[in-house]
Specification:
337 residues; 5-stranded antiparallel beta sheet; 12 strands; alpha+beta; 13 helices
Length: 337
């Protein structure tokens, strides 16, 4: 790990001031935030990220560590840990998708440290990104190429890919947020703002080094999720090589609002198969107004992967993704809500 300066601001405004400035993506900015540290420290040890300063948010965390559930929405502070959110009774009862996505991510030790805000910003596990010994990585070195296109790409994305990058977004919690129409709260040099969570991450077609719309100095402070029948009848299904401490090969975050034997509304997000948190509007459209049953589920699954682009080693992913989605829809349809 390279030498770096360490600073600990007393509040959010001071933290923003310490990291603001410049136009480069925050993921390569010289000053980086430190919250739970479960991602940034790993990347610094690998020499993938080389910040000159770490800004420790420990004294900021208390301002944004609330969990509040009302009749209208669930609010999560960005410094709530994954373990705290997954164990909260109101989340387990009314937002099971969120609790399951968090429980199926990482190890208990990491879930006790990792914050919700940091979790949605975790970077890809693509080996060509994480190992600086590989020179061709547009995400790490813009314009250098993408070694994964002709290299080992069994776990790489098939949705949202480009000829510049096929790295998979690794998170689980983000799929739950995008499926349930969450909003993200941000403070930055220009003040506070709220935007749909689906607008936070960007595709790699133009600039793979830029993963979100955040600018240096922008700090995620919280998330809000509307209460709904969809949220209550929801679940997260994760398929992986092994059952513990492994990232998804394919996952599905699904929610249904039923009207007797028909589907009034649906939400579908896919993980492990896309370059960013992936909301499948195609699958949702295929489900709305349709009878509850196997044929509707299959139609939605095929609609979800119409635009898939495979590489030499990940051609299995569209079929695995379809089967994962169908299985998730079967399970959520059988829930009592």
């Amino acid at each position: 790990m390279r030498a770096f300066a360490y600073e600990r601001p007393r509040g959010a405004a001071e933290a923003v001031q310490m990291t603001a400035g410049g136009t480069m993506p925050p993921t390569v900015a010289p000053a980086q935030f430190l919250a739970g540290g479960t991602t940034i420290l790993d990347l610094m040890k690998l020499d993938t990220m080389r910040p000159l300063r770490l800004v420790d948010l420990g004294d900021v965390a208390g301002q944004f560590r609330d969990i509040s559930a009302s009749a209208g929405e669930l609010h999560l502070g960005a410094f709530v840990t994954m373990a705290e959110a997954a164990a909260h009774p109101a989340i387990r009862r009314d937002y099971p998708l969120i609790a399951q996505a968090l429980e199926l991510a990482a190890s208990p030790q990491l879930r006790n440290m990792a914050t919700l805000g940091g979790n949605v910003l975790q970077r890809t596990r693509c080996n060509y990104f994480r190992d600086p010994g590989w020179s061709a990585c547009n995400k790490r070195e813009p314009g250098s190429g993408c070694a994964a296109l002709t290299g080992v790409n069994r776990k790489h994305a098939v949705l949202g890919v480009s000829n510049k990058c096929i790295a998979t977004y690794p998170g689980d919690f983000a799929q739950a947020l995008i499926a349930l129409d969450a909003k993200v709260e941000i403070v930055g040099p220009s003040g506070a703002r709220v935007l749909p969570f689906g607008e936070l991450h960007v595709s790699p077609d133009k600039d793979p080094s830029r993963e979100t719309i955040l600018q240096p100095g922008d700090l995620i402070t919280g998330f809000s999720i509307p209460a709904s029948a969809l949220a209550r009848r929801s679940l997260y299904l994760k398929i992986r090589d092994r059952q513990s401490y492994e990232f998804a090969l394919a996952s599905a975050a699904v929610a249904l609002d039923l009207d007797g034997g028909s589907i009034r509304d649906a939400r579908v997000a896919l993980g492990g198969v896309a370059t960013r948190p992936w909301r499948s509007h195609e699958a949702e459209t295929a489900l709305r107004g349709q009878p509850l049953g196997e044929q509707s589920f299959r139609n939605a699954a095929y609609a979800a992967f119409v635009g898939a682009q495979v590489q030499n080693q990940n051609s299995y992913k569209p079929e695995l993704g379809r089967r994962t989605l169908i299985r998730a829809l079967r399970q959520v349809a059988a829930m009592e809500a």
